[in-house]
Amino acid sequence: MTQSLIIRLAIAALVGLAVGIERERSGHGSTGAHPRFAGVRTFLVIGGVGGAAGWLQSTGSTALAVSLLAGASLLTAAAYWSAARAGGADAIDGTTEMAALLVLALGTLAGMGEMAVAGGAGALLVLALSEKAAIHGAVARLGATELRAAMQFAVLALIVLPVLPNQAYGPLGGINPRTLWIVVLIFSGLNFAGFLARRAVGASRGYGVTGALGGVISSTAVTLQFSRMSRLRPALAGPLAIGTIAASTVLLPRVLLLSAALAPPVALALLPYLAPPFLAGALVVTIRLVQSRHDPLDGDAEALERSPLRLFSAIQMAVAFQLALMAIEYARLRFGSPGVLVSAALLGLTDMDALTLSMNRLGRAPSMVPLAAQAIAVGVSANAVTKLVVALVLGGPRYRAQAALGLGALLTAGAVTIILLAR
Q1: 183-188-189 Cα angle (round to 5)
Q2: Has this prediction a pTM greater than 0.70?
Q3: I want to staple 247 with a disulfide (CB 3.0 to 4.6 A). Which of 95, 219, 324, 346 is the partner?
Q4: How crowded is residue 194: how many other Cβ atoms within 10 Å of its Cβ?
Q5: Distance between CA atoms of residues 117 and 124, nearest Å
Q6: How far is Cα 196 from Cα 209, in angstroms, rounded to an integer?
Q7: What whole-number distance in Å separates Cα of residue 261 and Cα of residue 297?
Q8: What was the pLDDT predicted at 283?
Q9: Residue 36 in contact with residue 96, Cβ under 8 Å?
């Protein structure tokens, strides 16, 4: 018991020490022209007080624990009030005082035995305090569009999702409203992340980077956009082709990461299928970038989307996901494994995200893992066929030749791998 108590108090005190060091170094300590109430020593003591209160609570001495916490909280509030009165508007900050209250709470958690939670949260607190300039700079760069999208996403996730029923309705596995809405959130979140990445890097950095970042959203959309643009601006055929190939290459790790998050065994089985086409695409992009490093870029690419969340598109993909689940379940029951592969190829022509989610759900059963991985690989190859056709039909002459080379390399590597692994 003594050893456990010492460890708990040590974790609580260390959290306070870390925050105190950060506050002292950032000029918010107890020394200087405008001294604050807490520096290294005070924060260390606050963490220790929280740890002691947590330990008292765990032993049943609730009244004494509450007294300690209330006393420390009142002292913090009094210090803030005193500093505000003495220093005027310049002294009204509150960050250090709120950090002290958080240290007190985290120390209490450590004293109650939740040491991992207290330590992790303490590290995040120190990081947030130390990155003040970066955080303020990021907020300053946010526009009305990004803020509105963030608020919309919060409403979708925190208000709409909890009220949806978590129950399946109908045949062939049924329709689960909550599961469908989670899929909508996944797609919207991916769209938003890709939008922010494009805004941060900027299209002027090169169409290769633009295509790769756009591939996080939709590699098919990148191919469609760049193919059309290559006819309007033939001089940009080379960079646009690089962007198209980069977008299709980024699709592969995206599929793999999504599979790893949903069904790790499927991702492990999928890795041998996706590694060769990824390496082929990366090699082509690298060679083309080296060859075209001196080519001038005539302007920036247009944004691939205007709405960061692309909610309507996300809902469409969620519906496609549900239809895919039902179609694949029907094909599996009616035709067996070959039916699943045919369905995967057809779905992969247009919607890799829905296919990936569907197959990872199928792969939750250990016996279905190899089939799920093979179906995703077939879908990836079918998707490459779609983009190759789009590039050949809509692209300009120079763009067609260069995009077909890269997409053909991806398709060939993927198809050969599927054939070899299927033996």
Answers
A1: 95
A2: no
A3: 219
A4: 22
A5: 11
A6: 14
A7: 38
A8: 94
A9: yes
Q: In the predicted model, is pLDDT for residue 325 greater than 70?
A: no
- Residue 6 to residue 160: CA distance in whole angstroms: 45
For residue 249, the model assigns a pLDDT of 93
Indicate if the pLDDT at residue 16 is higher than 80.
Answer: yes
Q: In whole angstroms, give the CA distance from residue 328 to residue 24.
A: 60
Q: Which of the residue ranges 227-231, 338-342, 365-369, 414-418 has the most confident prediction, judged by mean pLDDT? A: 414-418
Tokens of 50: 């929280």
CA distance linking residue 49 with residue 69, whole number of Å: 8
Instruction: Read off the pLDDT of each residue in 406-418 and give the average, rounded to a whole number.
Output: 92
The first and second tokens of residue 296, run together, are 């001038």
Quote the radius of gyration of the chain (alpha carbons, Å): 28
Check pLDDT > 70 for residue 364: yes
DSSP state of 81: H
DSSP letter string, 168-191: -BSSTT-B-HHHHHHHHHHHHHHH
Contact 390, 224 (CB under 8 A): yes
154: tokens are 């919060």
Q: At what angle do helices 369-394 and 397-422 cross, to 10 degrees?
A: 160
Q: N- to C-terminal Cα distance for the chain?
A: 60
Decide: 379 and 399 in contact? Cβ < 8 Å: no
In three-state form (DSSP H/G/I as H, E/B as E, the rest C), the secondary structure along 10-46 is HHHHHHHHHHHHHHHHCCCCCCCCCCCCCCHHHHHHH
Give the Cα separation of 225 and 244 in Å (integer): 9
Q: Give the C-alpha separation, 358 to 173, whole Å.
A: 12
Highest mean pLDDT among 31-40, 132-141, 210-219, 269-278: 269-278
CB 16 within 8 A of CB 45: yes
How far apart, in Å, are the Cα atoms of 80 and each of 29, 30, 94, 126, 265? 13, 13, 7, 20, 53
Contacts of 280 (CB under 8 A, 6+ apart): 409, 410, 412, 413
For residue 185, which of 321, 328, 329, 343 has the smallest C-alpha distance? 321
**3-state SS, one letter per residue, for 92-120:** CCCHHHHHHHHHHHHHHHHHCCCHHHHHH
